[in-house]
């Protein structure tokens, strides 16, 4: 009987961990708008170094952690740039397709001559 329960316990544990991860991601704003994601990133940058120091003291490790690098990165601007590039490419796609088709036809005509 224990052999039948063990896989069920493993599955329940995995589902619980995955569900908890999704809940924490939603609750912290990672799955929200880009502004919410930026706020969550700033909270993580502020919370992680003190937590690591606390755990290192707890386990008796005396290693010096490197400082957090300053990254001047705005997810909002990067997101907008990616959206602009994608929309621009999609709007130019019919024109580019006709240009490439004409070039291909010219190439084939020159080969046939």
Structural account:
There is one protein chain. The protein is an all-alpha fold. It is 81% helix and 0% strand. It is built from three helices and no strands. The protein has helices at 2-28, 34-59, 75-112. The protein is elongated and about 80 Å long. The chain starts with a helix and ends with a helix. 0% of the residues are buried.
What would the principal axes of the Cα set say about the shape? elongated
Q: What's the tally of helices? A: 3
Which whole number gives the mean pLDDT? 84
Radius of gyration: 27 Å
Classify the beta-strand content into a percent band: under 5%
Sheet with the most strands, sense and barrel status: none
Which descriptors would you attach to this protein?
single chain; 113 residues; mainly alpha; elongated
């Amino acid at each position: 009987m224990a052999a039948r329960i063990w896989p069920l316990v493993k599955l329940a544990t995995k589902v619980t961990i995955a569900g908890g991860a999704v809940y924490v991601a939603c609750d912290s704003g990672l799955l929200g708008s880009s502004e919410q994601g930026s706020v969550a990133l700033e909270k993580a940058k502020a919370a992680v170094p003190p937590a690591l120091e606390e755990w290192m003291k707890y386990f008796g490790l005396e290693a010096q952690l490197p400082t957090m690098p300053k990254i001047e990165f705005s997810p909002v601007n990067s997101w907008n740039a990616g959206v602009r590039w994608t929309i621009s490419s999609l709007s130019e796609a019919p024109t580019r397709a006709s240009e490439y088709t004409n070039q291909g036809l010219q190439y084939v005509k020159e080969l046939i001559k």
